[in-house]
Amino acid sequence: MRISSIVLLILVFGVIHVKAQQKHPLTVGELFNLVESNSKTLQREKTSVEFANKGIETARSQRLPEINTSMSA
To answer: Helix, strand, coil % (nearest 5) of the chain?
Structure first.
């Protein structure tokens, strides 16, 4: 009785473990999303690009001429 219970538990947990590791094919889009979300290098580079874009925006805003208006009577 005890041995059959142990064997049954082993079989049940074995089936659960096998089902948990079933593989399914990924589409190319899913693959790139998975790589992008898990890559620390890509995340770091993305942050660098965003930072550089902010620097470009700042430089462009400082380059534009200022327009001062005043009214005199």
So the answer is: 75, 0, 25
**Closest to 35 (Cα-Cα) out of 46, 43, 25, 23:** 43
Exposed/middle/buried for 7, CB within 10 Å: 0-12, 13-18, 19+?
Answer: exposed
Separation of alpha carbons 34 and 8, rounded Å: 37
**Cα–Cα distance for residue pair 61/69, rounded to 1 Å:** 19
Q: What is the pLDDT of residues 3-38, one digit of tens each?
A: 777 766 666 666 555 455 567 787 888 888 888 788
42 vs 54: CA distance, rounded Å: 18
